[in-house]
Amino acid sequence: MIQEKNSEEIIRSNGFPKFEFTKEIHKFGVISEGEIVVCDFFFKNIGSKDLVIKNVETSCGCTVVKWERKPVKIGEESHITVEFNSEGRYGKQYKVITIFCNTLSGTKELVITAQVK
Question: Which residues are CB-contacts of 100 (< 8 A; sequence separation ≥ 6)?
Answer without folding.
Answer: 53, 54, 55, 56, 57, 106, 107
